[in-house]
Amino acid sequence: MAGLQMHHVAKRYGATTVIHGVDLQVDDGEFVVFVGPSGCGKSTLLRMISGLESATEGDLILDGKRVNDVSAADRGLAMVFQSYALYPHMTVYQNMAFGLENIGTPRAEIEAKVREAAKLLKLDALLERRPTQLSGGQRQRVAIGRAIVREPSIFLFDEPLSNLDAELRVQMRTEITALHQRLGTTMIYVTHDQVEAMTMADKIVVLRAGRIEQVGAPLDLYNAPANRFVAGFIGSPRMNFLSAHVATPGDGGVRVALDAGSAASGGTLLPVRSDGVAAGDAIDVGIRPEHLSLDVAPDHVVLDATIDQLEQLGAASFLYCTLPNGEKLTAQAAGQVDHRAGDRVRVGFAPQAAHVFRRIEGEPALPRTTRARAPS
Amino acid sequence: MPKLGELLTATRGRGRLDWTDWLSYGYLALGVLLMFGPVLWLVLSSFKTPAALTEFPPRLLPYGQAMVKVEGQPEALPLYRAKLPNGSTSEMVELRRIGIQATMIDPKHPDEQVQVNIRDRQPVREFHLATENYVDIFGKFDFGRFLWNSVFITVVATLITLLFNAMAAFALSKYRFSGQRSVFLLILATLMIPPTIVLVPNFLVVSELGLLNSLWGVIWPAVATPTGVFLLRQYMLTLPDELIDAARMDHASEWRIFWRIILPLSAPALAVLAIFSIMWRWNDFLWPLIVLSRTENFTLQLALNAFQGELTTQWNYLLAMTVLTLLPVTLVFAFLQRYITTGIASAGIK
Q: E strands within A87-139?
């Protein structure tokens, strides 16, 4: 059980900087997910926490002590690897016991701990098997079991589910969440899958190119993304970005003119603060596919669109459309729709569902004036 | 076994023998004859008596003079087919011989002695394995001593070779340090230096260390082999780094990672190197010849050489000893050869 602080932690390989001065606080017992596209440095950051990589600069503080110079073996953490990294020549039991043997645990105690962990993970019947005789999900459990028996202060997971098939991934996701609730240990979990991040995390850390873009609870990130990158990364399908111009910035919101909208509308009032924007500034309006509607309400911002492609999933339908100015728009409709490719449709969205991003470095979002919440 | 039969009788044509079948079976038969013929000749000859060895024209199978026990005589006597003075031929044993006259008796009538000129008789030959060749070398010569020396050098040198080369390969494959590449290339570069070139410097070093005439003087210079380092490094490169990371997270020391994770997983490559090392050390001749000069330190190969006297050579013993010398390495190869193919294949690819 321990908290972790990172103060301006950076990693450089020669002239290349992989992690640019990261500051992060992980509280005791928290489930933190590092998420980001591949190559964003999330695994490197995790390996720096584990001690397998050293930090070039900054301080890593574990339980109040600076651990930069403490070796991976002595940090008291446990890690679950993407490839599971089970020792192929050892049985499941030996795999789980290896770490305890290394710290000189008495044989009887090892046996008790391994049996207990095996019971917890439903591995009792498999203890004498070799990893090659196990299925992917079972191997994953052994890898987790190997971490559990050490009773680490923090669990580190490096994309543990990416080698499993979709069904098993969902199952293991809930098992890991349940495990966290039962053990109450701090867990740091790396994934590139935003669904895993949204479903499992207490706190999500979104990374891009070695920098933290936003830290927050899953729904905070969904409802109030700090910038265009986070907005695009969190949520599936991806958020639509429509180019627009500021018509009149004001106190009650910003009046914007969508490039794809009809000129007659003369601008739409969006409830965001007009921090630093002036009339005529180019901006992006972000709207999630699930906030677009085919049933246009009177207060909606309305767009004319042509359907290019239609995906009917039964419970939901995805419409891939083109707007009059050539911009692409993805809309999600609940249930099944009576349209086909080539149809012209009117789609609308509520102004309070829109996000506004400035076109300056980092593409920050304009804060909303209303409390961030997804419209029903 | 049915598989083997299938392999040996496989033909290209359906049912009938194609001309390519004749060609390939002919070629293979020639190969077997060339490769296996001398070995077979050696083994058969090792069971011949000295007399049979010097016989001309030579025979393939070991034949010896037939001996017959005759009533009233203390020992078995050699049997001949003799032409008797009365013109008939009969099988008789030789009682004694003076000059060209032999005194012979018929085994059925031991009392009648006949004088026969030795040109008028032919020895009766029968298949006979001279196993005494093998029995004698254990008593007559210090064969056990030579065998022990050879076994000691082979086993100890192989164990040390495996350990040292595996440690070097582990460092070269799994640690990142400056100069790693140059060290590896340097080790590989020594492959290009013929052993004879470094014979004298090696001798000087061994001599300075006071290891001349000691088995360790044969062992130490041989344990570090570039081939072994290369073979093991290539294999260890294929072991995933995540296993080592996992072991480090499991609080394992570097030595423990090497001993518990890397070594067991490198077993196929280690087996290959073990076979090579056993063959190298067992068959090694030149270096032991230089280092070991006292007879009690001789390896089997040196003993075989010493057996070949300047004036006379006891061929029957020499051949028996050669067969015994071949035996262990043949057995090792026969039982471990599958590792060579699998090990080399997996060490090379990926």
A: none
